[in-house]
Design goal:
Thrombin, subunit H, Pdz3 Domain, alpha+beta, globular
Length: 400
């Protein structure tokens, strides 16, 4: 018997033609898809090559970030400042030294010692003026300045202003140093780029990057009651040795002078003196070697309506405070312009020279801009009544 193999499915001629057409259409679709995929892969590669070529310099080298460009503008003007000062050694009481230690170590030395310090600075004019911090060159006997190219020159302190922690040093010798471009600190906004340059821990030409984290930070809130500064806050790393170095924006312009860094809780926050203030102070230092700061002789705290209401609800409160915002007088310094004008503890300053006062900083800013011995009008609240007073700012005493 002959066996026959019978297919389970036998397509008709029509179905075979349809299947062939479908196969051809599917192949065409697949070919089109593969073509698109190839374009999608090759096009970015082509654009990437073109982008690399577009970012190349004339000499064929790849260009760098905006940070490198900014640093290139300022770094030649950044200097290292080495100082020496004489300090008096505190002698030991001989009666407190063990005789055995005296035999081994000898008699304790008595007399002055040479103390070395280091900071940074930035050249701000082609005559060799270097802007730095006052605490870098405070009471020093010798100043040595190392330029960015390694050239070392002696420096002479032109003047210092401890209130703003700024100082000027003039480089010796006839030469034309590189000068840093100065920006406008009043144009800063929180979130702008901030680049710190200097010599932290003796490591020259160190650059750190961050942003402007805050503006108008009152230095008194950081524990410095003897200074008047609204600082720029930044998260760009500022370390010992950075003091006096520049804080730079993304265009390579100096926007501040690095002055301090917070340690302990909140470490990592640095602060810089706005360059507009530094420019004004440096001009006065060149002219007279010092800066005159008007003062009234008041210690002030911020008062708000909420704080006043909470205070007034206390049955043990000695005085009733006006329930509005202003600068509350906490104390009046003896023999000060404020005392002579009749200001008292508990007065609330609510206006100065036609300007509304809602916090002490507004009043202090107006006083800083006032002229010595020129009457300044104040509006205060005392015992629920508005009173107008006139006070003549005097020069802040105790500055040399």
């Amino acid at each position: 018997m002959r066996l026959r193999l019978v297919p389970l499915f036998r397509p008709s001629l029509t179905s075979m033609i349809s299947s062939r057409l479908l196969l051809q259409q599917g192949f065409a679709v697949l070919t089109h898809f593969l073509g698109l995929l190839l374009v999608a892969v090759l096009l970015p590669l082509s654009l990437g090559v073109q982008s690399v070529k577009a970012l190349s310099d004339v000499d064929g080298s790849t260009s760098h970030s905006f940070v490198a460009d900014a640093v290139r503008r300022v770094a030649p003007a950044v200097v290292r400042i080495d100082t020496e000062r004489t300090v008096q050694r505190q002698p030991f009481d001989p009666t407190l030294i063990d005789p055995l230690l005296r035999d081994l170590l000898g008699e304790p030395g008595i007399g002055p010692e040479r103390e070395r310090g280091q900071g940074s600075g930035v050249v701000i004019d082609d005559q060799g003026l270097v802007l730095t911090n006052a605490h870098v060159v405070d009471q020093v006997d010798a100043v040595s300045v190392t330029l960015a190219d390694g050239d070392q020159r002696d420096g002479r302190v032109v003047g210092t202003d401890p209130v703003t922690d700024l100082a000027l040093v003039r480089l010796d010798g006839a030469f034309r140093p590189q000068v840093a471009p100065l920006g406008d600190s009043d144009a800063l906004e929180v979130g702008d780029w901030a680049i710190a340059l200097g010599t932290p821990y003796g490591l020259e030409r160190t650059v750190t990057l961050g942003i402007v984290s805050g503006l108008h930070r009152n230095i008194s809130s950081l524990g410095f009651s003897d200074k008047r500064l609204d600082l720029i806050q930044t998260d760009a790393a500022i370390n010992p040795g950075n003091s006096g170095g520049p804080l730079v924006n993304g265009r390579g312009e100096v926007i501040g002078i690095n002055t301090l860094v917070r340690s302990g809780p909140g470490a990592g926050l640095g602060f810089a003196i706005p360059i507009n203030l530094a420019r004004n102070v440096s001009e006065q230092l060149v002219i007279s070697g010092g800066v005159v700061h008007p003062y009234l002789g008041l210690q002030l705290v911020t008062l708000t309506s909420r704080i006043a209401k909470e205070h007034n609800r206390d049955p043990n409160a000695l005085v009733e405070l006006p329930e509005r915002s202003g600068a509350l007088v906490q104390s009046v310094l003896p023999d000060s312009p404020a005392e002579r004008a009749g200001l008292r503890r508990g007065d609330l300053v609510i206006g100065v020279a036609e300007t509304l006062v809602t916090e002490p900083q507004i009043l202090l800013k107006q006083v800083d801009q006032a002229e010595i011995d020129v009457p300044l009008s104040l509006k205060i609240m005392r015992n629920g009544e508005e009173i107008s007073l006139s006070v003549k700012p005097a020069a802040l005493p105790g500055l040399s």
